[in-house]
């Protein structure tokens, strides 16, 4: 075991982590612990753009952007946070341009902008061009640009270090962050990082679904680490299903395809979104479009022999436009489906895409231990966090924005805290939980396989807590997850070695997914209403009287060691927008 | 409005698509043996599945010790460059049907970098060469504009191709010069230098050209085009290297 001491430790090196690292490294001695090489992070898979009311191509302002964000989130958004997001968006985009990001340009040489779902002029009048983009690889360019600037600033990375535990020390009765425990993939060695500040920026949890746009590595490691230490998770029932994943594979095809004029069609060739969203049509918010697709499929208008998908039609767009604006996704269609998007429509289905919920924070990125109390020294930003700027449904292009605005904020806040604060003492035997977990898995002689349990988890999640949910389906998921958690105790791995033991890490990751899937299902069961990405067929309306509030889920351990989830609720911050019925 | 004919693609969607395929994988684990060996695995795969799907099937159903890197599984994160049937490719972008499943499919680590375990290589020398070309925008900080710097669409287009790089190392580890001399910067580092040298906003092109004028720099390139063939992003790597060479001679870029 090795012990390291840093002012600031950042967990994860995607967009939020590296944006934070650039700020934190300038202000404090900083280490970035990342389970992947930084440029492997899933920020790189984001395609369509980053929203900011630059008004480079048409009239726009940050207030309209704030409204769209609040409405898009079905009024569960904390409006003070949404206002910061929309206001600071402009400088965030300009920061990236100055760091070198090669945005597409207008004929005047300014940053070009395009339409995206849910972004409108003047509170819903018509779609607006607000998404700043670099072809259909905006996330790739953000990830590369941030990594380039980390190289420039001399950011210190610990690559292929898996953070498996959050260390908490109580000082004067208040829980403080004391550091983290990490597992080094190359050697199997355990490292304790004592730090004044810790920032989680470790991304989402999408791998508990089967059809997902998420990377294999998105297993909710950060959420699970803090949750196990008694800290809450907020709004975990809200998960976004992106309308256009490649049929059966789930690979993302950007909403920018519809922003460029692409159209969704059913088996009759009908542009069905006109029925569901007369104004915004194919550019309604993602939850609305995904439900519409499944409604078409359920009512027998899906395509293919099993009627289980619809089409994204780009055939009316000029090939030059596809080549210039959508080169990657058209390439995906050719590579993975053998389809030529110039002439043939692309089979798509909704794909599990983004966790709106996560570790609760305030607008400075400080993690909350309950509805109001901050955990000194603990921060989170990006998909792992819940500020909440996305509420019940995130707008497209607001996640690349979120990681930049709140990654920067968390990086500054954490480093400034570290400048003032002292180290808090490490708990006794800080590595004990991780060592126990690793050794148990390495020496287990059980008969359960990781891949089998993961497959069953993914199948039950797809079947029961996806776009449409009912009490019955959610209960089925809760029971299945409980069974899988029980069987997980009996899981064994084949690789018993210390060197690059990815067999072991997949088992650890499965444990995280199981914990978080349970939180999601239990939170979803209790929310007896429909809002944004959470749609209950048995409660099809939004219920602002009873559920205009954030879910806060806590892990409880009884005296006899039994685990349970306690749900509490937190008020939504409303400033200028009163809830209204949501139409697109 | 004219609508396209739907339902062209799934004529074969209901027939069982699975075939038996042999994966011949290069195994190496110094905890077990100092020698690398070949090991064969028999798999049932749909020819439309990827080599990565095959490797997962081995790991998840047959042998959990098989070790490789992967993340996004659709060709954007750059984790899973490997040598498949003797050619550098991404396992997640290579479909079984495109590499003749009649014969054993060989899978081995990329060359020129130290193998650590099975298909995992030491990427540090590769990233060091990248860092050595100063891969970040450098401008003289006087008069930084309050808004964005302007750049014409034509100037932006000038370096578009080299911004696609995902640092997977497929190019560098396909280069015979790099195999023989690990000191050579290699195509990926040059591609990333090109991305800044030809960016109209950047003001350190001369410095980068001097770095690449080194004895381990751009002149080592023998124009074998292996890098261009290997690039999973379709970057014209050899052309980019030639443009850097030309810029060194003419000092115009």
From TrEMBL, chain A:
Catalytic activity: a quinone + succinate = fumarate + a quinol
Entry EC no(s): 1.3.5.1
Named cofactor requirement(s): FAD
Top EC category: oxidoreductase
Key words, A-Z: Coiled coil, Electron transport, FAD, Flavoprotein, Membrane, Oxidoreductase, Transport, Tricarboxylic acid cycle
Ranges where the Fumarate reductase/succinate dehydrogenase flavoprotein-like C-terminal domain occurs: 454-584
PROSITE patterns found in the cross-reference section: FRD_SDH_FAD_BINDING (PS00504)
UniProt keyword Protein biosynthesis present: no
Pathway note: Carbohydrate metabolism; tricarboxylic acid cycle; fumarate from succinate (bacterial route): step 1/1
Cross-referenced Gene3D superfamilies: FAD/NAD(P)-binding domain, Fumarate reductase/succinate dehydrogenase flavoprotein-like, C-terminal domain, succinate dehydrogenase protein domain, Succinate dehydrogenase/fumarate reductase flavoprotein, catalytic domain
Residue ranges of coiled coil: 467-494
Membrane spanning stretches: none
NCBIfam families given in the database record: sdhA_forward, sdhA_frdA_Gneg
Entry's family note: Belongs to the FAD-dependent oxidoreductase 2 family. FRD/SDH subfamily.
Protein name, as recorded: Succinate dehydrogenase flavoprotein subunit
Source organism of this protein record: Streptomyces viridiviolaceus
Gene: sdhA
From TrEMBL, chain B:
Record flagged with keyword Metal-binding: yes
Domain 4Fe-4S ferredoxin-type: 155-177
Cofactor binding note from Swiss-Prot or TrEMBL: Binds 1 [4Fe-4S] cluster. Binds 1 [2Fe-2S] cluster.
Ubl conjugation is among the record's keywords: no
Required cofactor names: [4Fe-4S] cluster; [2Fe-2S] cluster; [3Fe-4S] cluster
UniProt domain 2Fe-2S ferredoxin-type: residue ranges: 19-113
Alphabetical UniProt keywords: 2Fe-2S, 3Fe-4S, 4Fe-4S, Iron, Iron-sulfur, Metal-binding, Oxidoreductase, Tricarboxylic acid cycle
One Pfam family per UniProt: Fer4_10
Top-level EC class as recorded in UniProt: oxidoreductase
EC number: 1.3.5.1
Reaction(s) catalysed (UniProt annotation): a quinone + succinate = fumarate + a quinol
PANTHER family named in the record: SUCCINATE DEHYDROGENASE [UBIQUINONE] IRON-SULFUR SUBUNIT, MITOCHONDRIAL, SUCCINATE DEHYDROGENASE IRON-SULFUR PROTEIN
Protein family per UniProt: Belongs to the succinate dehydrogenase/fumarate reductase iron-sulfur protein family.
Name of the featured protein: Succinate dehydrogenase iron-sulfur subunit
Source species: Streptomyces viridiviolaceus
């Amino acid at each position: 075991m090795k012990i390291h001491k840093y002012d600031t430790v950042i967990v994860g090196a995607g967009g939020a982590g590296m944006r934070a690292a650039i700020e934190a490294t300038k202000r404090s001695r900083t280490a970035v612990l990342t389970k992947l090489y930084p440029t492997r992070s899933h920020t790189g898979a984001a395609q369509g753009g980053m929203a900011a009311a630059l008004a480079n191509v048409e009239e726009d302002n940050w207030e309209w952007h704030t409204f769209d964000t609040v409405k898009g989130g079905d009024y569960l958004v904390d409006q003070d946070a949404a206002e910061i997001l929309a206001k600071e968006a402009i400088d965030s985009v300009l920061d990236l341009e100055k760091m070198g990001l090669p945005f597409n340009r207008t004929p005047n040489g300014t940053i070009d902008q395009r339409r995206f779902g849910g972004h409108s002029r003047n509170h819903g009048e018509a779609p607006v061009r607000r998404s700043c983009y670099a072809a259909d690889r905006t996330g790739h360019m953000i990830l590369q640009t941030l990594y380039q600037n980390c190289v420039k600033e001399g950011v210190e990375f610990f690559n292929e270090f898996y953070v498996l535990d959050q260390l908490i020390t109580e000082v004067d009765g208040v829980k403080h962050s004391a550091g983290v425990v990490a597992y080094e993939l190359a050697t199997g060695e355990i490292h304790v990082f004592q730090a004044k500040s810790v920032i989680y920026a470790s991304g989402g949890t999408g791998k508990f679904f089967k059809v997902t746009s998420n990377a294999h590595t998105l297993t909710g490691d950060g959420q699970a680490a803090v949750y196990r230490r008694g800290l809450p998770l907020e709004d975990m029932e809200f998960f976004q299903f992106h309308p256009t994943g490649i049929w059966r594979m789930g690979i993302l095809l950007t909403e920018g395809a519809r922003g460029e004029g692409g159209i969704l069609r059913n088996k009759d060739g009908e542009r069905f979104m006109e029925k569901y969203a007369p104004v915004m049509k194919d550019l309604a918010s993602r939850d609305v479009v995904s439900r519409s697709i499944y409604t078409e499929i359920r009512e027998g208008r899906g395509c293919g022999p099993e009627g289980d998908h619809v089409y994204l039609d780009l055939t009316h767009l000029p090939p030059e436009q596809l080549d210039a604006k959508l080169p990657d996704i058209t390439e995906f269609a050719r590579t993975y489906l053998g389809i030529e998007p110039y002439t043939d429509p692309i089979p798509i289905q909704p794909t599990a895409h983004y966790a709106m919920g996560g570790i609760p924070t305030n607008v400075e990125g400080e993690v909350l231990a309950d509805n109001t109390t901050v955990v000194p020294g603990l921060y989170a930003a990006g998909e792992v966090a819940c500020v909440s700027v996305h509420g019940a449904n995130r707008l497209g292009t607001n996640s690349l924005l979120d990681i930049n605005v709140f990654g920067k904020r968390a990086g500054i806040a954490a480093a400034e805290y570290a400048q003032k604060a002292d180290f808090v003492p490490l708990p006794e035997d800080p590595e004990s939980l991780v060592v126990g977990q690793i050794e148990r898995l390495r020496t287990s002689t059980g008969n359960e396989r990781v891949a089998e349990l993961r497959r069953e988890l993914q199948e039950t999640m797809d079947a029961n807590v996806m776009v449409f949910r009912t009490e019955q389906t959610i209960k089925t998921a809760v029971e299945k997850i409980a069974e899988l958690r029980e069987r997980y105790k009996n899981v064994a791995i084949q690789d018993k070695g210390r060197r690059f033991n990815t067999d072991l890490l997949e088992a650890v990751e499965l444990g995280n997914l199981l914990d978080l899937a349970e939180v999601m299902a239990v939170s979803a069961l209790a929310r007896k209403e429909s809002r944004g990405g959470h749609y209950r067929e048995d409660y099809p309306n939004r219920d602002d009287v009873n559920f205009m509030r954030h879910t806060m889920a806590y892990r409880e351990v009884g005296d006899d060691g039994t685990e349970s989830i306690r749900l509490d609720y937190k008020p939504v911050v409303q400033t200028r927008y009163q809830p209204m019925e949501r139409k697109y | 409005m004219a609508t396209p004919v739907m339902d062209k693609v799934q004529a074969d969607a209901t027939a069982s698509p699975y075939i038996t395929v042999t994966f011949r994988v290069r195994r190496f684990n110094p905890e077990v043996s100092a020698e690398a060996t070949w090991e064969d695995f028999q798999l049932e795969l749909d020819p439309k599945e990827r080599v990565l799907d095959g490797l997962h099937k081995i790991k998840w159903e047959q042998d959990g010790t098989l070790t490789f890197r992967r993340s996004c599984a659709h060709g954007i994160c750059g984790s899973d460059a490997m040598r498949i049937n003797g050619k550098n490719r991404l396992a997640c972008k290579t479909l079984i049907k495109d590499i003749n499943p009649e014969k054993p499919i060989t899978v081995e680590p990329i060359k020129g970098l130290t193998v650590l375990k099975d298909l995992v290589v030491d990427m540090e020398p590769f990233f060091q060469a990248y860092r050595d070309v100063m891969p970040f925008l450098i401008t003289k900080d006087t008069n930084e504009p309050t808004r964005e710097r302007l750049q014409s669409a034509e100037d932006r287009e000038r370096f578009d191709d080299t911004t696609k790089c995902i640092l997977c190392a497929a190019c560098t580890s396909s280069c015979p010069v790099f195999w023989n001399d690990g000191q050579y910067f290699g195509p990926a580092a040059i591609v990333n230098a090109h991305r800044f040298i030809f960016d109209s906003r950047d003001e350190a092109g001369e410095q980068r050209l001097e770095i690449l004028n080194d004895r381990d720099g751009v002149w080592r390139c023998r124009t074998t085009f292996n890098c261009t063939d290997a690039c999973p992003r379709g970057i014209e790597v050899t052309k980019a290297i030639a443009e850097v060479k030309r810029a060194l001679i003419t000092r115009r870029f």
